[in-house]
Design a protein that fits this description.
The structure holds two protein chains of two kinds. Chain A is mainly α. In chain A, helix 1 packs across helix 2. The model of chain A has no long low-confidence stretch (mean pLDDT 90). Chain B is an all-alpha fold. The N and C termini of chain B lie far apart (66 Å).
Chain lengths: 116, 245
């Protein structure tokens, strides 16, 4: 458990150092995710070891964005003023993104012979 | 020790991290209960319920967000390690990724760019500007990464957090009727597209509908977190300047 947490925190720390040190625009934890992914490919035994910790963490993933979400109290005037524009952008963009993803997947699957 | 006046106890509590940490967990617990009572309908999202309850509580007690965050930051901190942990399910699905590598990569690129560009373009067409538009750009990405991206490109992370949650709920609600309407039967395509467009909330919904769709949705969510983190800082500020300049 402790070792697993150290693995996660060490990846995040290395990611933060890389992001700041190299001036990368990518958030540190995302680089940490890529580092852990690379580590899992190099050492497959690691996956089984840390899986209990990561599953527990990811099972409650949605709890973790409550504190940031509550910060909306500071943006209620923005939501009131721009609410309709924001909802329209979210709804139409989500529909467009789903359809773009589906049709490109099907087209490339047909071309590359990976269709079902 | 003489018993303290209730107002004194309150003065102590409202400044202590313990109260707001507990309130955050209780509010989420209530949200989760409501979600399960409603038959796991995506519209009754536990995060949205928890955010609404806590926002109301802060309002009623006149507590500033900063005091609340003193306590809630312990929960917030775990977003970083949780983002790193996303590598594990991604690795577990490696075989599935290899089996449909090119369709997935192409669909990821198409879905990711479409989500970002259409959100910003439609927002700009409706008169949104500057910080609000930038906050909208990473709205299809899983929350911990979206907050980081929003901060990097000059958006408001708190606003992004709420937009991300609403996007997830939208995707979870519209995906099944939309894709049935268009007669899409490939569960891999359906799952991947929903994961890219509507992150974890869409993925949770995909798992309810079909196991394969759920696995591909999880992959889509993970890969889009990576891709948007890479392209948003290059694309979003330029796009916003071009559309509103």
């Amino acid at each position: 458990m402790i070792v697993n947490l150290v693995v996660l925190l060490a990846c995040q720390l290395a990611g933060e150092i890389a992001a700041r040190g190299l001036g990368l625009p990518v958030p540190g934890p995302v680089i940490g995710m890529a580092l852990l992914f690379a580590a899992l490919i190099l050492r497959p035994a690691l996956a089984e070891r840390i899986a209990p910790t990561t599953s527990a963490l990811l099972a409650h993933l949605s709890l973790l964005f409550v504190p940031a979400g509550v910060g909306v109290v500071g943006h209620l005037d923005t939501l009131g003023r721009d609410g309709v524009a924001l909802i329209a952008a979210l709804l139409l963009s989500t529909v467009a993104a789903i359809l773009a993803g589906v049709y490109v997947f099907l087209a490339v699957a047909r071309l590359s012979g990976a269709s079902e | 020790m003489t018993p303290a006046d209730p107002t004194e106890i309150w003065t102590y509590l409202r400044q202590d991290p313990l109260l707001w940490l507990t309130a955050t967990l209780v509010a989420y617990g209530l949200g989760d209960l409501a979600f399960r009572r409603a038959g796991r309908r995506p519209l009754v999202n536990p995060v949205l319920v928890a955010v609404a309850l806590l926002a109301l509580l802060l309002r009623v007690t006149g507590t500033p967000y900063q005091s609340y965050f003193e306590g809630a930051q312990f929960v917030h901190f775990m977003l970083g390690p949780a983002t790193v942990a996303l590598a594990v399910p991604l690795y577990a699905n490696l075989r599935l990724i290899r089996s449909a590598f090119w369709p997935m990569l192409a669909a990821l690129a198409a879905g990711s760019v479409t989500a970002l560009v259409t959100a910003v373009a439609i927002g700009a067409a409706f008169g949104l500007r500057g910080e609000t538009l930038l906050s909208l750009a990473p709205k299809s990405v899983t929350a911990p990464v979206a907050l980081g991206v929003s901060e990097t490109i000059g958006g408001a992370p708190n606003l992004t957090a709420v937009l991300v949650i609403i996007t997830g709920i939208t995707g979870a609600v519209v995906a099944t009727p939309l894709l049935n309407l268009f007669r899409i039967r490939d569960w891999r395509a359906r799952g991947l597209a929903v994961g890219v467009a509507a992150h974890g909330i869409g993925t949770a919904r995909a798992f309810q509908v079909n196991e394969t769709a759920g696995a591909f949705a999880g992959i889509g969510m993970g890969l889009n977190a990576l891709l948007t983190a890479l392209i948003a800082p290059l694309l979003a500020p330029w796009l916003v300047a071009w559309l509103t300049g």
